[in-house]
Amino acid sequence: MPHSSHKQDLDQISELWRLGRTPIKIGVLKNMLRAYPNAGVAKELYEGFLCGFRLKYSGLRISFISKNLQSANCHKGETLDKLDQEVKAVEEIPGTSTRGRVGSRKQPRRVQRFDIEFETNRLINCSLAPNTIQAYQRALNALAKFRDSFDLDHSFPIPLNHITQFIAYMSCLDMASSTVKCYISAISFYNKINNYEDMSQLFVVRKMIDGMARSKLKRPDSQEVSVWIVGSSLIRNAFVHARSRTGGVNLGLHRIGVKIWWQGYGGMGLKDLESTIKRLMKYEKAPKYLVLHIAGNDLGKTKLGFLRNEIKATLEKVQSYLPNSSIVWSQILPRTNWRHSKVRIA
């Protein structure tokens, strides 16, 4: 083969490879396939998009580019014109259509192993309602996220301690017991469909779910304990952090009837406390406990002796507004530098 012809073939191969690359993000696909019901098909899909799908052929491999394909790629205009002519010719014949008909093949289609695996998975999915499939998929995704959060391996069958910890995790998130039952049913279905030992139906798992349902019974309003946490930006930042944590804004104390109301304001000083308490009393009943973290922003602006007396006077005024509330003073935290001080180094 002449050198120029060989170079042209290589250029053609690279061009066809560029057109055939998949836009699928392999990393995202890998995470989504973790909860795929058929582990064998999931592995084949991942490896196929990563390294290329196998043709199920064993023997001598000779690579070549079809001359018809090369010609069609080089003469795109002529190829499209010929295709249009063929389509129009078929449409002009009465009783014909460009769509294929069932049973039009002279010979039956050869069934591959992948077809059997795909059909098996399709039939299993058809046995469930679409909403059930979506709910089970959410459950398996939540389990995978839980395992990642606590550095647990993604082993199957799912160990018993993973299932019990997953139930406790969902309880800490204050999830409904019905949702937890649905998630455990999804795990059970996944285990059974893959012929794994089903740990989700053991006695301890069922008792945890029953206990969760009983613990979710609401307490009477008279037993609810209200807590206000008021202060500067540190309280505001603590609220933002608590909102994303397992126990939520109530720090996990909602199970014993505690409700926390966070009120943090950047730059808040001691002089702002009295007006803040008055404003909060317009929207909520007096709390059982009032936690205060304040006066850190006053250091450096007010002399210490005067500040100590001002703190005492302010707390007495607040106590007069909330006579039945217990005030909890949060100690001023040390800092590396003081914003309003002449010498900022602590």
TrEMBL record:
Name the chain's protein: Integrase SAM-like N-terminal domain-containing protein
Entry keyword DNA-binding: yes
Q: Report if keyword DNA-binding is assigned.
A: yes
Q: Which domain of life is it from?
A: Eukaryota
- Keywords assigned by UniProt? DNA-binding
Annotated Gene3D superfamilies? 1.10.150.130, SGNH hydrolase
| Residues annotated as domain Integrase SAM-like N-terminal | 124-187
**Classification via InterPro entries:** Integrase_recombinase_N (IPR010998), Integrase_SAM-like_N (IPR004107), SGNH_hydro_sf (IPR036514)
| An example molecular function term from Gene Ontology annotations | DNA binding
The record's section on Pfam families has: Phage_int_SAM_1
Question: Which GO terms are recorded in the biological process aspect for this UniProt protein?
Answer: DNA integration
